[in-house]
Amino acid sequence: MANSSANRTYNDAIDALNSLQTPFAIIEARRKAGIRPDATSVQEIRGYLHRIGYTPSDLDRLNIIHVAGTKGKGSTCAFVDSILRRYSRSKNAPRKVGLFTSPHLIAVRERIRIDSRPISEELFAKYFFEVWDRLETSDAAKELVEVGTKPIYARYLTLMSYHVFLNEGVDAAVYETGIGGEYDATNVVERPVASGISTLGIDHVYVLGGTVDKIAWHKGGIMKRGSPAFTVEQVPEAAGVLRARAEEKGVELRVVGVDGRLEGVKVRPNAVFQKKNASLAVALAEAALKKLDGGFELDPKGPLPKEFVEGLEQVVWRGRCEVKEEEGVSWHVDGAHTVDSLKMAARWFVEECDGKKGPKVLIFNQQGRSEAVDFLDGLCNTVKKGDPAGNGFEHVIFCTNVTYAETGYKRDFVNHQYNPKDIEKMTQQKIFAERWSALDPDANVMVIHSIEEAINKARGLSETVQDGEKVQALVTGSLHLVGGALGILEKADAL
Ligand SMILES: Nc1ncnc2c1ncn2[C@@H]1O[C@H](COP(=O)(O)OP(=O)(O)OP(=O)(O)O)[C@@H](O)[C@H]1O
Ligand SMILES: [Mg+2]
Ligand SMILES: [Mg+2]
Questions:
Q1: Which domains are present in the chain?
Q2: N or C: which end of the chain has fewer CB within 10 A?
Q3: Ligand with minimal distance to 345 CA
Q4: What is the pLDDT of residues 147-203, one digit of tens each?
């Protein structure tokens, strides 16, 4: 446990933060006992907020744009942030934009951004330990949370983000929910300037339930009376639940179709799912600016103002549909990790490979979720179907999320929530390999320990290709894998 007075660096903060992860054994025990997050988790954050010196109404100063959804939350948030940031530059409203997202790709501090940049290591350490100390010394709100305790990892970062943004004078903050909505720590906000619900599908089944209507109930929990709410077109079961939730709360929920004003706007990748995210972002940014820049309104017939166009076209959201070229290998990197989003990723990869020559190589992992083996079918078939000659991946590598062959995890990726024995024995990876061999007996399937070794393997394969060919590699299945891979490919902190 970090000593509150002695350790003050960024690395110390990350070590202390890692100590707040729920260990694997406890997660397992809870799972067996059927314990799931409930209303007490938001009450707990409310208690901690008081303990560090704020009330939920202080959060009104942040003018929060709150986003939930199964897929596209982060991308939507990044779009909103990028639009507001450009608007702020030309109109000076909002003055400072905060962005809170999860999980992180390269470093923990990228979850808390100001004016689109991750806060510095120094600032992170300063605010991290200020929260830490207040939690240790104050006994405020003892009726809500036990004195001397601290929130778990993700909740701590949520709590800390409020402290950072309020102190730094942020006046518009975009918040991505962690898991679900109703019981997510970010749902402590009472008066967001707008709520947005991106595409719903199946994920986090254990916590949220295994059907899309149950999941929609949770995500719909971020809508608040008095705040405008927006969503994209959803499958019927989800749409019905969202409508009912809106009604119950007295909220007018607007369903945003693909915005016609995006015609000619270069949204990347050029795919329907991303246009849905962008359309939702336009509606959210408009709602926020109505409040922040009195009287602001978009022309419904278009065109979009230049701040919106530039915001959408120039957004940086790393690890999603990224292509990196190096000698011998074209790296396609995408952090998809649900059945639906992996199909999107596969489709995108096939389109990118169109006209290019060379063997297709997959590097895949997903740690700690046994259902992930069912992600593989869609990935395998989508790539085969999309290839003119029906060729799937020639080489398929399953690795763990351990970054380096020699030194193990980067500190920002230490994860106590997985079973360490499974990682050591590569249990999950072997299950993946078996499934893939059944799906595609022609593929050369490998199980490799670290991300670094997996990357080197793919690089090695480039020596076997013919002139004019390049290895076409897809790295996907987990944001941790993708973040680790980008770190290695770029040799430095890719932030
Ligand atoms: N609207 C969407 N529908 C389906 N897939 C999507 C959508 N938006 C993004 N994706 C896919 O999901 C991946 C993750 O996107 P993003 O980071 O926006 O999602 P997220 O909701 O923040 O996910 P998480 O926080 O669970 O990682 C993208 O790389 C892309 O492949
Ligand atoms: Mg998720
Ligand atoms: Mg996300």
A1: 10-313 (3.40.1190.10), 322-489 (3.90.190.20)
A2: N
A3: 1
A4: 999 999 999 999 999 999 999 999 999 999 999 999 999 999 999 999 999 999 988
- 438, amino acid identity: A
Contact at 8 Å (CB) between 80 and 288? yes
Q: Quickly state the pLDDT bin for 19 (edges 50, 70, 90).
A: very high
pLDDT in tens, 385-444: 999 889 999 999 999 999 998 888 888 888 888 888 999 999 999 999 999 999 999 999
Count how many Cα atoms sit within 13 Å of the Cα of residue 72 in the half-sphere of its side chain.
27
Residue 265: how many other CB atoms lie within 10 Å: 19
- Looking at residue 115, the DSSP 8-state letter turns out to be T
* C-alpha 433, offset from chain centre: 26
Give the model's pLDDT for residue 493: 59
Give residue 136 CA to ligand 3 midpoint distance, Å: 30
pLDDT at 495 over 70: no
Whose CA is closest to atom 17 on ligand 1? 74
Cα separation, 427 vs 373, whole angstroms: 12
Q: Cis before residue 228, ω within 30 degrees of 0?
A: no
Rounded-to-integer distance, Cα 458 and Cα 335, Å: 18
Joined tokens for residue 255: 């369903």
Compute the distance from residue 207 Cα to the ligand 2 centre, in Å.
12
Q: Rounded CA gap, 170 and 327, in Å? A: 43
* Cα-Cα-Cα-Cα dihedral sign, residues 187, 193, 197, 198: negative
